[in-house]
Amino acid sequence: QLFLDSTDISYLYEKNQKPIARYFGELTFSYEYKNKLSEPFNWIYIEQKKLLETAKKTGWKCQIIFEDESNAYLARLQTK
Predict the structure, then answer these.
(1) Would you say 71 and 8 are in contact if contact means Cβ atoms under 8 Å apart?
(2) Residue 14 pLDDT class (50, 70, 90 cuts)
(3) Exposure of 75 by Cβ count < 10 A (0-12 exposed, 13-18 middle, 19+ buried)?
(4) Buried b / exposed e across 34-56, counting CB within 10 Å, b at 16+?
(5) CA angle 28, 34, 35 (to 5 degrees)
(6) Using an 8 Å Cβ cutoff, are 24 and 10 in contact?
(7) CA 79, 10, 8: angle at the middle one, nearest 5?
(8) How does pLDDT run across 26-59, given as a tens digit for each residue?
(9) What is the C-alpha separation between 51 and 15, in angstroms, rounded?
(10) Cα–chain-centroid distance for residue 14?
(11) pLDDT at position 12 over 90
């Protein structure tokens, strides 16, 4: 089994168009500490509906364990 947390960030695009060439939750981040910048790394925020659909298509059982009022959630993926 695999536990993950994510957030539906679609609210960030209420006034802006979502990206066309990629899933809107795919982002690139860098960390900075004491004026040192990390290499960029990819991150994904996936909405619950998309996670549930993708899990089903790829043979995983998905259960949303917890969700809060800010669209964050905790999920459990299990092999069938």
Answers:
(1) yes
(2) confident
(3) buried
(4) eeeeeeeeeeebbbbebbbeebe
(5) 60
(6) yes
(7) 35
(8) 999 999 999 999 999 999 999 999 999 999 999 9
(9) 24
(10) 18
(11) no
Assess whether pLDDT exceeds 90 at residue 17. no
Q: How far is CA 37 from CA 4, 20, 25, 32, 64, in A?
A: 26, 29, 23, 4, 35
Q: Phi/psi at 13 (nearest 5 deg)?
A: -110, 15
Alpha helices in the chain (DSSP H): 48-57
- The closest of 24, 29, 31 to 9, measured between CA atoms, is 24
- Residue with the larger pLDDT of the pair 30 and 14: 30
Residue 19: strand, helix, or coil? coil
Place of tokens 């536990």: 3
Residues 1, 60: contact at Cβ < 8 Å? no
